[in-house]
Automatic annotation (TrEMBL), chain A:
Residues 231-240 have a biased composition (Low complexity). Residues 226-247 are annotated as: Disordered. This is NADH dehydrogenase subunit E. Keywords: 2Fe-2S, Iron, Iron-sulfur, Metal-binding. Belongs to the complex I 24 kDa subunit family. Its cofactor is [2Fe-2S] cluster. Binds 1 [2Fe-2S] cluster. [2Fe-2S] cluster binds at residues 101, 106, 142, 146. The keyword Metal-binding applies. One of its GO terms (molecular function) is 2 iron, 2 sulfur cluster binding.
Automatic annotation (TrEMBL), chain B:
It catalyses: a quinone + NADH + 5 H(+)(in) = a quinol + NAD(+) + 4 H(+)(out). Its cofactor is FMN; [4Fe-4S] cluster. Keywords: 4Fe-4S, Flavoprotein, FMN, Iron, Iron-sulfur, Metal-binding, NAD, Quinone, Translocase. NCBIfam families: nuoF_fam (TIGR01959), PRK13596.1 (NF010120). This is NADH-quinone oxidoreductase subunit F. It comes from Actinorugispora endophytica. PROSITE patterns: COMPLEX1_51K_1, COMPLEX1_51K_2. It holds the Pfam family Complex1_51K. The keyword Mitochondrion does not apply. PANTHER family: NADH-QUINONE OXIDOREDUCTASE SUBUNIT F. The keyword Ion transport does not apply. InterPro entries: NADH-UbQ_OxRdtase_51kDa_CS, NADH-UbQ_OxRdtase_suF, Nuo51_FMN-bd, Nuo51_FMN-bd_sf, Nuop51_4Fe4S-bd, Nuop51_4Fe4S-bd_sf, Soluble_ligand-bd. SMART domains: NADH_4Fe-4S.
Amino acid sequence: MSAPETPPTPRDETAGDVFSGENRARLELDAKDVIARYPKPRSALLPLLHLVQSEEGFVSTAGIAFCAEQLGITTAEVTAVATFYTMYKRRPVGDYHVGVCTNPLCAVMGGDEIFAGLKEHLDVGNDETTADGKITLEHLECNAACDFAPVVMVNWEFFDDQTPESAKKLVDDLRLGKDVKPTRGPNSLCTWKQASRVLAGFDDGRAAEGPQAGAPSLAGLEVARERGWRAPEPAAAPAPADEEDAE
Amino acid sequence: MTTLTPILSRNWDRPDSFTLAAYRETGGYEALRAALGMTPDAIVDLVKASGLRGRGGAGFPTGMKWGFLPKDNPNPRYLVVNADESEPGTCKDMPLLLANPHALVEGIAIASYAINSRNAFVYVRGEVLHVIRRLRNAVAEAYEAGLLGKDILGSGFDLDVVVHSGAGAYICGEETALLDSLEGYRGQPRLKPPFPAVAGLYASPTVVNNVESIASVPGIVANGADWFTSMGTEKSAGFGFFSLSGHVTRPGQYEAPLGVTLRELLEMAGGVRDGRRLKFWTPGGSSTPIFTEEHLDIPLDFESVGAAGSMLGTRALQIFDETTSVVRAVRGWIEFYAHESCGKCTPCREGNFWMAQVLRRIEAGKGTEEDVAKLLDICDNLLGRSFCALGDGATSPVTSAIKYFREEFIAGTHTPAWELFPYQRTTRWASESVEEDA
């Protein structure tokens, strides 16, 4: 289970054409939009890194230079930030980033077994990409969905309550291009690049898709409804907000 | 007997609960209207009177935090909401934002008005794409309805709210690291003082509050401080989410008054899975010392949990039954801290790195006679010797697990943990095999 970390492969120095010509002009407009959200431009660095990742699928040397130019800071300053945060990838990532939570709660509930099973099934190690370029596998730390353990994230969408079998089927479906639906997310998966664009702050209009809550999120509410438990009424305040519940 | 008090979660079973229309149908934004008719100081006093304490782990009184902003500082003031929920076991703010983001947005508007801030930021962890969509959408809906932006509800009060996605770093849940990250730097903690109230975002007066703290404010404004203090205990007023996870029949979110016990919560959640026995649990995430069966009746409020040797933290109740190796869990947590240590402070960076190695060999049954003492010695050199609470928190699982289960660490000198506690027995799908080992 403690597979040795793979040494970083040389960066894709040929990438980065995307930051020239007409595409650059478009991205500069996006960057202006991002920078304008903040009282001080440098605050835009994290979203700008998400933005360049949405173009190439990772943060290349050219992407770093683009960010530095937009903000008027050095590439060393941008690199220091890009290498600090685990969501920025310095090497190309597959179309689907599959993350398996192996923090103790999920690990004990089966995350360790799921991760080991996927490594074998996909024939990759941690932070490696399948030969067809479809899937990058990574183990994750706690993703704030412990009541749905064990949890798998694909392109940062929730796939709750997984088993080794369901996780293998999930990656098989992804590789075959079949429709895959997150348990608490939109009706279909977006790509890794599209996800990065959402993180940069550009909406994809899919907020209303998918359920409002999973079953564990409602566990306490259901017990309260069954047993007739409610929050206390405000003593002298005007009509409480949840009047219609009182039936 | 304590009963549940669904407040923030009361509308979560509506399929459209996350929309502005649904939120308004259940009284949403009435508190904002009321608040805008009050003076800002009156709102600060109201929140002080409610006794609301920070719901992000530390439990600092929210109203007092607001009151610390210096009156004579000419710089702009900022409200920053900490939505970086990453403490292992903590899973309350993300479902709240997914199902009911307007509770936070309304709370932001009220809190910003109270502290006289025109710019608020929500720093939300990046690894939760749909949560970010829902939150951004709620902010957009609120702007469109005149609940954010210029001249909110005709009051003359202006407020801009920016949803800012993080990029994967547990340390950014620490408030000063969060501010550095929001300024576009590596997320490393700052030495305090100065506290953010004096020199926070862009060195301006700043309030940093947790999602659940801010989302609790509209209810206090709408229903009064007495309503809030009618729940909970004298020093731990009000309600909060208790997040049950792990070896429990019905894991999930249970919104209850502070002071509820794990015994009561487990009864509501159908008990430990398959009638098994509780072995250990965290009261508030992995950074809070573990508890055992003997702590089932400790009231889960700040004072009682503290008096029993742990911390209420984020009420992240991770439940582990008798099949679980405590050495395995602690090894995993320390690998987490070693990975997430920002590296700024030597005791934290090095201490966790070395503890992870010692714990790996104990787990593999290859520990040495000195290893338990070695772990405790490293913890001694770590606790209280770093800028932020990450280092302190890392010692919690180690020292508490050795306190309650020293024999398991000793057994690690000769027998692998996976032989003592076969790992296939702990999984979610292992439950059907319970009879055969009974």
